[in-house]
Specification:
Blueprint (H helix, E strand, L loop, with lengths): L12 H5 L9 E5 L7 E5 L6 E6 L3 E6 L4 E7 L7 E4 L5 E7 L5 E7 L4 E7 L4 E6 L5 E6 L5 E5 L5 E2 L11 E4 L5 E6 L3 E6 L4 E7 L5 E5 L5 E6 L2 E6 L5 E6 L3 E7 L4 E8 L2 E10 L4 E9 L6 E7 L2 E6 L4 E5 L3 E6 L6 E7 L2 E6 L2 E6 L13 E6 L4 E3 L17 E7 L2 E8 L4 E8 L4 E6 L3 E6 L3 E6 L5 E6 L3 E6 L4 E6 L9 E5 L4 E5 L5 E8 L4 E10 L2 E10 L5 E9 L6 E5 L4 E5 L6 E3 L4 E3 L7 E7 L2 E6 L4 E5 L4 E8 L5 E5 L3 E4 L7 E5 L1
Antiparallel strand pairs: 1-60, 2-3, 3-4, 4-5, 6-7, 7-8, 8-9, 10-11, 11-12, 12-13, 14-15, 15-16, 16-17, 18-19, 19-20, 20-21, 22-23, 23-24, 24-25, 26-27, 27-28, 28-29, 30-31, 31-32, 32-33, 34-35, 35-36, 36-37, 38-39, 39-40, 40-41, 42-43, 43-44, 44-45, 46-47, 47-48, 48-49, 50-51, 51-52, 52-53, ...
Length: 675
């Protein structure tokens, strides 16, 4: 793939701006990929053919079990989806996740439009949540001393209902006519409440610490798991009616039509899938003789859909069991697991698996109607990509031969490769024994390497030999101040007296820079002025905040807080866009902010689940936690396209105007639906 820059159209972007190459259609399409990371929740409605799944990648995916296609893919959160509840009548669901303070949050969405209806912040860990049978209410059971909350399902307004200090509630259910509520306390207390009167009707005592509970269709019995035993509890008396020894359960699912329980168990690192027959007339539990012991995927969750049990796996797979014998894969991960990306000149470079992959927009062939993305791989195990900092102190423009650094850490060793972006070949490789790289950058003369033990190493780009060493306790990132000077930031737990250290490597001189931040994550030098931006943690009123600062002055002694957020957020990323002289940063991974020197603005409310981002030629590239890539126009603040790189080296690009483009072998991964 020759890369002649004069004929290379900008990366992938122009492909999708030139919309007249294909007519927009009144269709909706999704890319058929599973979760990146574990499946954390599964849900379904008995009358529906749809299966809902949530994962650690922060996405909610909706599948049709008949045609085995992905119907909807919703990027909902930068944090894992911890649970799902489906509205009994509407196209709405509740998703349990976390916020940037690690608190539990319930998000209500219309899953057909992906519109967020409201968000509810909970005061403690959510143990169970669900809608009422007719969808008038939803409730949340928490570990709080006032552990039950009832909400209006339309508005999300909290309703005053139960008295204070009810205690921890781990499970609850609402009656069919929505008049009464049953709550279960882990101590073994069952209480019935009247909603209209807001008072207790009846209290029962039963087994304590019942987990994975569910209520039978006739509302007479509660089935759950307590002390390695499957139990049936009479909800009128609290008495134990049936039990079955069933150790090491991970998850349970109950099918009232089959009168059957599917379970996942794990013992000595081996998983088992099995079944229990439930006879509520005779009040017996009977273990089915059929069990599956050899599983290709470690399972996490199970649910019944159309009388068949479906299972979610740790690798993102979804499986189902036919005839209690054959485990078949319903959905499997197809996206490449991308760890980093960066855009420069007319290329987008990403790291995936053991390769650096370059995407360009050159034509596949002269007869092609429009440019396609192309792949060029370089075999090098890599987890980070680095581009040079702006070399404005030399009063030059960007390098014509801008190198790309790919580097990796393997246990206690590290290595890097210098890649020529024109020939796409490795120019130089270097290994470091018993070192872990925490920062890598370069300028026209040197590679700058900072190792975990705080050692700074400058390597000549001419000879690739070390020319300067400096040991700075705990330093973990740097920025280039001038031709002779660097500024380094320190990590937590060091003896350094300041969070920033200024190094003149020609004079071999170091001096501390006064700044209140105790831990520095990133430093960026403003190429247009003697100003630096820092991202780090700072203790304010006995609490830690993540703070973005602008520092000026002869020794950067004057600093201004641009933005601060409670908590220590290691997802914080910063990029500077020279064309508009603006700083872009994300702290929690669900929003990108813009600092123009006067005020902070939000780039777009649509961004979610941000793992990394890069800026080049007025375009913003966002790598999401699910390994998809979205491309945005910076000044217009509009999404241009979504890029999916698949493990079989095929690709799919979707455009918001109703178009999509694929490689020759990528079309089978696109599901098209009429609107």
């Amino acid at each position: 793939m020759g890369l002649n820059r004069k004929k290379t159209v900008f990366t992938i972007i122009l492909l999708f701006v030139i919309c007249h190459y294909a007519a927009a259609q009144k269709v909706r399409f999704t890319v058929n990929t599973s979760h990146t990371g574990a499946v954390t929740s599964l849900a379904s409605r008995s009358e529906s053919d749809l299966l809902f799944s949530g994962g650690t990648d922060g996405t909610v995916k909706i599948w049709n079990i008949q045609d085995k296609k992905l119907y909807y893919n919703i990027q909902l959160s930068a944090f894992p989806i911890l649970g799902l509840a489906l509205h009994p009548q509407k196209n709405e669901l509740l998703a349990l996740t976390k916020d940037n303070m690690n608190s539990h949050v319930i998000i209500a969405i219309n899953w057909k439009t992906a519109h967020i209806l409201y968000t509810i912040s909970l005061n403690s860990t959510c143990l169970h949540f669900d809608y009422s049978p007719q969808g008038t209410y939803f409730f949340a059971c928490t570990s709080h001393w006032n552990g039950f909350a009832l909400f209006n399902a339309i508005t999300g307004e909290r309703l005053c209902f139960l008295p204070d200090r009810i205690g921890m509630i781990s499970y609850a259910a609402i009656s069919r006519k929505e008049k009464n509520i049953m709550t279960y306390n882990p101590s073994g207390k069952i209480t019935y409440w009247n909603i209209a009167k807001a008072q207790s009707i009846k209290e029962l005592t039963t087994l304590s610490d019942i987990r994975h509970p569910f209520i039978t269709q006739d509302k007479n019995f509660l089935i759950g798991y307590s002390e390695d035993t499957l139990v049936v509890i009479d909800l009128l008396t609290g008495a134990l009616k049936a039990l079955l020894k069933l150790p090491h359960i991970i998850d349970l699912a109950y099918n009232s039509e089959n009168q059957e329980i599917a379970y996942i168990a794990k013992y000595n690192k081996k998983q088992t899938v099995g079944f229990v027959n439930v006879n509520l007339t005779a009040l017996t539990l009977t273990k089915h003789p059929a069990e599956i012991n050899s599983l290709n995927s470690a399972l996490t969750k199970t649910v019944y859909v159309d009388r068949l049990p479906y299972f979610g796996g740790e690798t993102g797979s979804i499986l189902f069991l036919k005839d209690k014998i054959r485990m078949e894969q319903f959905a499997k991960p197809k996206l490449l697991i991308i760890t980093d990306l960066t855009a420069f000149n007319s290329l987008l470079a990403v790291t995936a698996s053991n390769n650096v992959i370059f995407l360009s927009s050159e034509l596949f062939a002269p007869e092609a109607d429009f440019p396609y993305p192309q792949f060029k791989k370089i075999s090098f195990v890599v987890n980070k990509l680095t581009l040079p900092f702006a070399d404005s102190f030399l009063e030059k423009g960007p390098f014509e031969d801008t190198p790309l650094i790919a580097w990796q850490n393997d246990k206690l060793n590290a290595k890097y490769a210098v890649i020529d972006p024109v020939t796409l070949t490795i120019v130089k490789q270097q290994s470091f024994k018993r070192k872990v790289i925490v920062h890598f950058s370069l300028d026209p003369r040197f590679l700058h390497i900072v190792s975990k033990n705080g050692q700074l190493l400058l390597v000549s780009r001419q000879t690739y030999e070390p020319v300067f060493r400096y040991s700075a306790d705990g330093m973990n990132t740097l920025a280039i101040l001038s031709e002779d000077e660097l500024i380094l930031g320190k990590n937590r737990g060091t003896k350094a007296g300041s969070a920033l250290m200024r190094i003149n490597y020609k004079k071999n001189k170091a001096s501390a820079i006064p700044i209140s931040s105790q831990v520095i994550l990133h430093i960026i030098k403003n190429p247009h002025s003697f100003l630096i931006y820092t991202a780090g943690f700072e203790e304010i009123d006995n609490s830690f905040y993540t703070v973005i600062k602008a520092c000026v002055g002869d020794n950067f002694e004057q600093n201004q807080d641009i933005f601060k957020l409670p908590g220590e957020h290691y997802r914080t990323r910063m990029k500077y866009f020279e064309e508009t002289e603006t700083l872009y940063f994300t702290i929690t991974g669900d929003t990108i902010y813009i600092w123009n020197g006067f005020e902070v603005d939000t780039f777009s409310d649509e961004l979610r689940n941000i793992k990394e981002f890069s800026i080049a030629d007025n375009h913003l590239y966002v790598l999401h936690k699910d390994s998809s890539i979205s491309v945005w126009h910076i000044t217009k603040r509009k999404q241009i396209c979504q890029i999916y790189l698949l493990s079989d080296c095929s690709w799919v690009v979707t455009v918001h105007n109703g178009q999509y483009f694929t490689s020759d072998n990528g079309a089978s991964n696109v599901n098209i639906f009429k609107k």
